[in-house]
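TICKET: design request
STATUS: open
ATTACHED STRUCTURE:
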């Protein structure tokens, strides 16, 4: 796919530093991301029945999953299920599809479960265990989570046939902690919750991504990093979105560094949308109005 240049050539970047697509090459290893990865790896290597990874929207959960996949050996068959919804029978179909297994239409729940069980036993006979990773698992119903717990019953003390990794937003933890979910909770042997970045790590995150993309890291001043943090509260996905706009504005204005004034211009124009946040809206209201942004010609 052709790279959209816009500001990348102007700043002499080799790539877009703030793409929203999860990319392990851009992963910023803050202390908490290192801890989360270690717990994630511990859960898989210790054969934990269920590993739980939660965090705020855009905290880097999916990127951590992408970084883990290459580390899994040939004795592991991975099924990655994203945004699975529906009833219990449909969930089993999602799993079969993720494992690359055909699932005939019209099959009953019992038939679908038997089909999945056959796949799991086949992989076990071949010396492989199955790891099922559910991204955005907060979208699963309680019945769906209970269905997943039942899969871990195929394991014995000595032999682990299937492991589950549940990745989701904070409400997933709330779901699992409900009184009726105690049997599932007892199977969670490893868990970690990713929080937002603090101000210092947010600045490091911004400059890290710029350097990975081929820049120097000095493209963002301290005042810019402070203003970006104040507007995003350290959520990585929001950091990416706002930084993208600030680079676009700097390119249009033919300036080589993003400063606090550039960030203020982006916020004043209202092109950055972070959802309802009274604190952010109060800060936005204090910004002085400015003429609307008008796109400039690319600088060669």
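STATUS: resolved
RESOLUTION: sequence designed for all positions
ATTACHED SEQUENCE:
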């Amino acid at each position: 796919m052709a790279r959209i240049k816009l500001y990348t050539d102007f700043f002499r970047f080799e790539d877009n530093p703030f793409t929203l697509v999860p990319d392990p090459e851009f992963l910023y290893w803050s202390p908490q991301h290192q801890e989360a990865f270690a717990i994630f790896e511990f859960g898989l290597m210790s054969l934990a029945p269920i590993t739980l990874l939660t965090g705020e929207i855009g905290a880097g959960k999916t990127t951590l999953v992408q970084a883990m996949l290459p580390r899994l050996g040939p004795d592991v068959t991975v099924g990655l299920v994203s945004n699975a919804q529906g009833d219990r029978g449909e969930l089993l179909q999602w799993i079969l599809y993720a494992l690359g297994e055909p699932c005939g239409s019209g099959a009953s729940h019992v038939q679908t479960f038997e089909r999945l069980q056959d796949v799991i036993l086949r992989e076990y006979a071949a010396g492989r265990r199955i790891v099922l990773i559910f991204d955005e698992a907060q979208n699963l119903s309680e019945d769906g989570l209970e269905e997943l717990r039942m899969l871990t019953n195929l394991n014995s003390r000595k032999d682990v046939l299937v492991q589950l990794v549940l990745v989701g937003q904070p409400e997933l933890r709330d779901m699992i902690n409900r009184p009726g979910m105690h049997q599932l909770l007892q199977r969670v042997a490893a868990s970690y919750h990713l929080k937002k970045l603090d101000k210092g790590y947010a600045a490091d995150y911004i400059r890290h991504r710029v350097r990975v993309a081929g820049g120097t890291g000095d493209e963002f001043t301290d005042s810019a990093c402070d203003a970006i943090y104040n507007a995003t509260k350290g959520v990585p996905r929001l950091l990416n979105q706002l930084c993208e706009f600030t680079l676009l504005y700097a390119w249009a204005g033919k300036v080589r560094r993003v400063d606090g004034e550039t960030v203020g211009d982006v916020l004043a124009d209202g092109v950055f949308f972070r959802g309802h946040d009274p604190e952010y809206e109060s800060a936005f209201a204090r910004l002085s109005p400015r003429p609307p942004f008008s796109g400039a010609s690319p600088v060669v």
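CLOSING REMARK: The first helix runs from residue 7 to 10. Confidence is low (pLDDT under 50) at residues 276-300.
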